[in-house]
Please model this.
Amino acid sequence: MAPLLFITGASSGIGQAMAKRFYDAGYSLALVARRTAEIKSWADAQGLSVSRYQIYSADVADIHSIVAAGEACLQQQGVPDVVVANAGISIGMDTAVRSDLDVLQRTLATNNIGLAATFHPFVAPMQKRGSGRLVGIGSVAGIRGLPGHGAYCASKAAVIAYCESLRGELRASGVKVVTICPGYIDTPLTRQNRYSMPFLMSAQDFADRAFRAVDAGTSYRVIPWQMGVVATLLRALPNRLFDRALSGRPRKHRLDEV
Model:
């Protein structure tokens, strides 16, 4: 029986790239997104066998919605071997603007509550089976705060810390928690950025490296590795030097600028 991947945010970007990489490795797919028509069109274009995937409609920002999708997967396809909580949003914010507090709330609901809710239906069944991979998609942006990126950086820092906590909780169960922190990946999300993106890589290259990290059960991986070096150096910088280095850097588009 083919192993099973459950992945959110499968309607575009790295979600689709990861889904295809796992499919090519022999996995069946449980594809989750709000835009199910786009997933279907993509699956048809890729020539995916209809016997090897199912599509679930869910909004990860709605706990009931994403938990229901997970429960439907358990009933229809069984316990996944790998669950990837990939769905996320990235919008700039300015704390002085009242409406941007709503952006922060929405970002945390999607990137953090949604991640935990994605994992929730599968934790107990994986523990009972004694195996599985729960994969959280963080970001190098979660390693240090970037001006204008408060919502996104805070959410991705929380992803990293949450997955670390969960990894400790599940250590004795046979269930592995893998944290993947992408650098700059060429997707529709990053193409809106108005600043330089060092070590930009294709979604397909990212998916290949992420697959290998997940397959190995690696606890934490920055992709590409060069961004891991940069992030480590930035983390080591004293605050006064870090603040000076980031001074004047273009900020991420806010909601009313997108």
About this structure: The chain has a mean pLDDT of 90. Helices lie at 13-24, 36-46, 63-76, 98-129, 150-170, 203-216, 225-236, 239-246. Strands lie at 4-8, 28-33, 53-57, 82-85, 132-137, 175-182, 185-186, 201-202, 220-223. The domain at 4-257 is CATH 3.40.50.720 (Rossmann fold).
